[in-house]
Specification:
By secondary structure, the protein is mainly α. It contains four helices and no strands.
């Protein structure tokens, strides 16, 4: 493999004149955005589980009624089935508010910083870490994918 083929994609190389402190700071901001992505995933899990709970509760109410406990079924249905999880909100409304507010703003700010400071390039900190840690010239340690090649595909 020639040295040109064993180099990172140009989108993963820092632009001329960008210092270590800037790359490190953007790496931390990217790390924070990744944590927000995980939190968003958990929020969607909350949304899905809340909906599942409400539908399952409805089945439980039906079963109570079929078992001859109509008054108790009516009470549970009135108090819990279809109830807001937060004041005025079902879980989908929480997800929408998070997505449209905090999440979208965070993504925009992170992107604007990258555009202003490093020509929009992503994951420079990680790309440089990869260059530092990989064994140059060794199979499974390539700088980037080689067309038609198969092999290790670590995360």
């Amino acid at each position: 493999m020639t040295s040109a083929e064993d180099r990172p994609d140009p989108q993963h190389e820092r632009p001329e004149g960008v210092d270590d402190a800037t790359v490190s700071a953007l790496g931390k901001i990217s790390e924070a955005l990744e944590a927000v992505e995980v939190a968003r995933g958990h929020l969607y899990t909350f949304h899905r589980m809340s909906g599942t709970a409400d539908l399952t509760l409805g089945e439980g109410v039906d079963a109570l009624r079929e078992a001859g406990h109509g008054e108790l079924a009516d009470r549970v249905e009135r108090e819990m089935v279809g109830r807001n999880v937060l004041h005025g909100r079902w879980s989908f409304q929480i997800v929408e508010e998070y997505d449209d507010g905090y999440y979208e703003t965070f993504r925009r700010v992170e992107r604007e910083l990258r555009e202003e400071l490093v020509e929009g390039r992503r994951h420079l900190f990680e790309a440089e870490m990869k260059e530092d840690r990989r064994t140059h010239g060794k199979a499974g340690h390539e700088a980037r994918p080689v067309e038609g090649a198969e092999g290790d595909q670590p995360g």
